[in-house]
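Quick start: what a row looks like.
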Amino acid sequence: MARGAVVSVWAFLACCGTACALNPSFDINQYAHKSWTVRDGFFKGGVITVAQTQDGYLWVGTESGLFRFDGLQAVAWRPPANQPLPSANIRRLLVTRDGRLWIGTDKGLASWKDGTLTSYPRLAQKDILALLEDHEGTVWAGGYAPSVGRLCAIRGDNSTCYGEDGSLGRGVISLYEQKHGGLWVGSQAGLWHWSPGPPKHYPVSQSEPAALTEDENGDLLIAGHDGIKHFVNGRLESYPLPGAKGPFPVDRLLRDHDGGVWIATVNRGLLHIHKGKADSFARVDGLSSDDVIGLLEDREGNIWTATDRGLDRFHNLAVPAISLKQGLSNADVTSVLAAADGSVWLGTPAGLNRWKDGQMTVFRKQHDGLPDNTVGALFQDESGRIWVTTYQGSAYFENGRFVTVSDVPAGVVFTFAGAGDGGLWMAHQDQGLIRLHEGRMAERISWSRLGRKDFAYTMAADSDGRGLWLGFAEGGVMYYKDGQVRRTYGSADGLGQGRVIALQPDPDGSLWAATQGGLSRIANNRVSTLSSRNGLPCDKVQWAEADAAHFLWLGMACGIVRISRAEIDAWEKNPAHEVKTMVLDGSDGVGSFESSYSPKVASSGDGRLWLTSLDGVGIIDPQHLPVNKLPPPVSIEQIIADRKPYGASPNRHLPALTRDLQIDYTALSLVEPEKNRFRVRLEGHDRDWKDMGDQRKVFYNDLPPRNYRFRVMAGNNSGVWNEAGAAFDFSIDPAYYQTRWFQASCVAAFLGLLWALYRLRLRQIAQGFNARMEERVGERTRIARELHDTLLQSFQGLMLRLQVVDDLLPEGRAKEELEQSLERADQAIAEGREAVHDLRMSASTTNDLAHAVRALGDELAVEEGAAFRLLVEGTSRDLHPIVRDEIYRIAREAIRNAFSHAHARHIEVEITYAERLLRLRIRDDGQGIAPAILEQGRSGHYGLPGMRERAGQIGAKLSIWSAPGAGTEIELNIAASIAYGKSAGSRLRLFRKAAG
C-alpha cells in the first residue's frame, strides 16, 4: 500500500473533522440505514466494539475475533503466528493519534502497529472494558476482574497502574475526558474524578456507571442500568428524555459532531436525543438487534452501532422523508402543496395532512368535513383557500373547516389551475374542463368539444392567467384561451411521446412538459425534447421544478435528476448537446413517486422541494445537499499471482512465468461504499488510466518479465476523487531463457551460425566460380592453340601456294590483284597472330596492364606521329586475367580512337592503383566527339557501345566527356574488390557484377 498517500489524506481529514455530520433536526428513521448481520455471515459472533484506523478501515471487535471492514467486506484479522492476542473475545478497541490500534480482550490488552503486536503483562487476565487516550497522549486502560480491578496509564514503554488497594472495586467500566481536561473514571465502586488534582471518589447509589459523556453545557452525564443521570456539583439529578418512555438500561453514550446524543440500550434499541426530544430505532424498524453494545462516529459523520447480532450504519440522506413516525396519516403521499403561510399540505389515501413548524395535523372526513379521506389533487387560489379533490367530491379549506362544492360532480379530478379572474379550472376525468368562480361552477367544457377523446391529465395557467395549457393522457399539449383552442402540439411537432404527466411554466415564458418520452420545451411556437439521447438517465419524466438557484430538477422513473441552467442553455443552442446531470436514486432516499394527481412536487418558501412518494413525502434542500467532501483513502490489499496470494509489500518480486495476475484494492469511504468509483493504471503495460466503475479488482494475463508500478485512484459517493491514490511496485522475475544474457547468447549463436553458413556458401560459390573461370581461361588457351596450330597454319600453307601461283603468273592486272590480296592476307594473318597472342596473354595473371598500355601507345605514336604519355599512380597490382583483359581492350579501343579518329596531337593515359578502386583515365586534345555519336555511337561501328558493354560485364563504371574541338576524356573506375587479387570474395563479387 502507498502509505505516503494514506498519511496525506489522513492529515487532511484530521484538519477537516467529519465530512458531513448527521442533520440534528431529523429522527433516526429519516437517516439512511444499513445492517450487516451475523445471520448473513458478515461476522462470526456478536459485535461488541468498533474503531476506525487512520487508513480508513473500520475494525470490528466480536466475540470470536477481530475483523477489518471496508464497508462491503469483512475480513478476519489474524496476528502473526508468534504474536498471539490474549484472547479472541474482543471487548474494546481504540485508535490513538500515533496510529496504534489498541485491542482490549477479556483476558488482557495488546496493541498493533507496523506489523508488531505488543502485550501489556500488567493487565493480563483482566477484562478490558474501557480504553481512552487523553489530551497528553497517555492511554488509560481499565481492567475488570472477579476480585480486584485495575486502571493503568500507559506512556510509551512505561505503565503505571492503580487499584491494587481495592479502591476501584472489581474494576473500571467507563472512562471519559471532558473538553476542559478533566478525567472521569466509572468503576464498580463508584465514580472517580481522577485528574487534574488528586483522585476524588463520588459514591453513586445507582448501578455502575456503564457510560459517561457530557451535555451541551459541559456537565457530566452518567448512564447505567437505571437510565441516564445528570451529575451536577457532585450530585446526581434526573435527566429528562422527552419522548422516551420509562427507565431503560444503557450500555454506551456518544455525543456526535453536531451535539446529538446517541444512547445504546440493552433491550430498547437505539435512542437519539436532539432538538430537545428523543426518538428511537429498534429491531422492528430494521436495527440488527435491540441490544446495542457499542457506538462510533467515523470521520465522514456516519454513526455505527454494534449489537449482539451485527453492525448498523446511519448517515444523512439527500432526500429524507417525513413518514408515519412523524405523524403522517399514510405513507402513500399522492399530492403535495406548499402554501403561502409556510405550511405544506399532503394528500394521502387516509386523509389530508398539514405539516407546519415540525408538527403534523391530519384532516379527515369524520371530523373536518372532507368529502372523502382519499385525497387527490390540491390547489391554493388567489384568496389563499386550499382546494382539495376526492372521489366523492371537491372542497376548499376556510376558517379551519372544509366547505364542499356541491355543484361539482363526484369523480376523479387530476389537476387544478388558476383562471386569472380569481377563479380556477378543474380537469374532471368524465365531465371535462370545469371553471369555478366564487366557489361555484361557472362553465363546463366537454373534452369532445375540445376535439379530444381522452382527458387532460395536467394543466397550467400561462403568465397572465388568461390562457390555459392542457396536457393529455394519450399525448399532446393544447393552449386554450378566450374560449378557443389557439395551438396544439404533438409528437409530430417534436413533443415527447406518450402521456403528458406534468406541465411547468418557466419564468422566461416557455413551458416545460414532462412526458413519457422525455422533457419537452415549448417556446416561440417551437418544440424541442430532451431525452436519454441527450444525456438523461432514462426517458420518462414525471415532473419538472426549478429551484432558487435556477437548477432544473426532474422526477424520473430512474431517480431524481438535477440539471444546471448552463447545461439547459447549451442544449437549447445545440439540440445534439449531451447534458451533464446529477442523479439521486434509492440509495439517496428517493422512493417511488408514481402519482396521478397534481401537484407532484412543491417548492416551499425556504427553498426546499417536497416530493410525493409511496414512502412519505421526500424533501430536497438544494442549498444544503449532503456532500461528502473527503477524498477516500485508497488501499491496495493484495496481489494474487496464479491463484497464490501475496501481500502488497513494496517491491514485491513475483515468480517467473507468472501468467494470471489479480490485484485487489479498495477505497475507504464508508458513507455509500457501493458508489465508490475507481481508475487503475499498470505503468509498464497500460498506456492510460482505465475506468473500473465500482470494481475492486483488476486482472492481467501473460505479463512479460519486467518492473511494474500499479496505481489506483478512487472517488467517493459525491464524486470527490483522491487523485494521489495508492501505488504498488512489483516485478515479475524472468525465466532463464527470458534473461538478457541468455537472449544475447542466443543472438550471438544465431549470428555465428549465419556467418558460418555465409562463409560456407561463399566457399561453394567461389569454388564454382573458380571452376568456371579456369574453364574459361582453359578454353581461351585451347582456342588460341587451335587457331595457331590449325587455322593460322592452314592459312600460312595457303599463302605459300598462292605465292607459287603469283610467281607463275605473268606480269599483268591479274598478277597485281593477286599480290594485293596476298598483302591483305598477310595483314589478316598478322592480326590473327596478335589475337592469338592476346588470348594466350589473358590466360596469365602476371601481365602488367601499364606495360601493355605503354607498348600499345608507343607503337601507335610512332605510326601516327602524335605524342603519347603514360602516368602510373600507386603501386602496380596484379589484376585478374579476365578483368585485365577487358580493361586492356577498353584502353586499346580508346587509344586507337584518339590516334586514328580524333587526330589528337597529345594523348595521355593515367592508371591509378588505389586502395578502394582502380582508375583508368585517357585524355586527348583531338577534335572531340559529336554529341549524337557520343550518345548512340557511329552507325556500323561498335567501338563506343563495345566499351560500355565490356565495362558493364566487369562491374566497372565508364564515363566519357567530350565536345567538338575540346578533346575527349574517358574514365573507367573499378572497385578494388573486383579488380585486385584472387580471393573468393572478390571473385564472387566479380561474378555477380558480370552476371548482372
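That is the whole record. The chain has five domains: 21-316, 493-595, 634-734, 739-843, 848-996. The chain has a mean pLDDT of 87.
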